[in-house]
Amino acid sequence: GQNIDQPTEMTATEGAIVQINCTYQTSGFNGLFWYQQHAGEAPTFLSYNVLDGLEEKGRFSSFLSRSKGYSYLLLKELQMKDSASYLCAVMDSNYQLIWGAGTKLIIKP
Amino acid sequence: ETGVTQTPRHLVMGMTNKKSLKCEQHLGHNAMYWYKQSAKKPLELMFVYSLEERVENNSVPSRFSPECPNSSHLFLHLHTLQPEDSALYLCASSQEGSGSYNEQFFGPGTRLTVL
Fold first, then answer.
1. CA distances from B42 to A78, A90, A93, B56, B83 (A)
2. Cβ <8 Å between B42 and A99
3. Chains A and B: how many Cβ contacts under 8 Å?
4. Which A residues in the span 63-82 are in contact with B, Cβ-Cβ below 8 Å?
5. Where are the alpha helices (DSSP H) in chain A?
6. What CA–CA distance (Å, rounded) separates A87 from B6?
7. Is A43's CB within 8 Å of B90's CB?
8. Cα–chain-centroid distance for residue A82?
9. Residues 6 or more apart in contact with residue A56 via CB below 8 angstroms
10. How many angstroms away from the CA of B5 is the closest CA of chain A?
11. How confident is residue A107, by pLDDT bands cut at 50, 70 and 90?
């Protein structure tokens, strides 16, 4: 079966750095997405990785290792507004998105 | 504001009621999706419409009936629902085709409670 694993919840301190991991087992691979979802709001796109390596976009970076079936989202200089759920999703060989259950990130002052 | 709107934002219905959820996208996309989001569970894809034709069903119970009258509008018709159908229903759209990695844009969702 297809599976995406990510931690259920993480806590970090304002101004610090946090890494959210995602491992996957899917039938084929056509890219990995990270989305941010604030409580009661729509998920919004953060990043897309299809090749191995690190993609940096401001305070957020996303890393992919296809051989290990592994990705992480790195958030730097954490702000209170970064408190949200972070969803990992993989596009399989049928171009269908397989979603993880999301990681709830709690930022403390 | 993602360019995808959903109405209503909240809906409470009894098991014998019939209601419809509406989604509209203002992005010129050619694909639209219905997802179910339950607490602490992955997003569940319910239906996909590409170029106004349904391409995915994913064994959704028949009490959920989608309708896509044109590329900008998507409906989810609900009837005789069960309490376990209570969830957040999300609509999304994307542009399928070459040169695109099919990033999906989501609406804010409809919070459905079935009594």
1. 25, 12, 19, 18, 19
2. yes
3. 44
4. none
5. none
6. 21
7. yes
8. 13
9. none
10. 10
11. very high
Q: What is the pLDDT of residue B51?
A: 77
pLDDT at B57: 72
Given pLDDT bands bounded at 50, 70 and 90, which one contains residue A96? confident
Tell me: the pLDDT tens digits for A20-76?
999 999 999 999 999 999 998 899 999 999 999 999 999 999 999 999 999 999 999
Nearest CA-CA partner of B40 in A102, A38, A10: A102
Q: Is the pLDDT of residue B92 over 90?
A: yes
Give the A window 13-42 contacts with B, CB below 8 Å: 31, 33, 35, 40-42
* Alpha-carbon gap: A33 to the closest alpha carbon of chain B (Å): 8
Residue pair B25/B32 in contact by the 8 Å Cβ criterion? yes
CB contacts of A91 in chain B (<8 Å) are 101-102
Task: Please tell me the distance in Å from A69's CA to the nearest CA on chain B.
Answer: 18
Using CA atoms, how far apart are residues B57 and B7, in angstroms rounded to an integer?
22
The alpha-carbon radius of gyration of chain B (Å, integer) is 14
pLDDT tier at B99, thresholds 50, 70, 90: low
Residue B102 touches chain A, beta carbons under 8 Å: yes
The residues pairing with B20 across neighbouring beta strands, listed in sequence order, are B77
Residue B91 sits at φ, ψ, to 5 deg, of: -105, 145
Structure confidence by residue, pLDDT tens digits, B39-74: 889 999 999 998 777 877 768 999 999 999 999 999
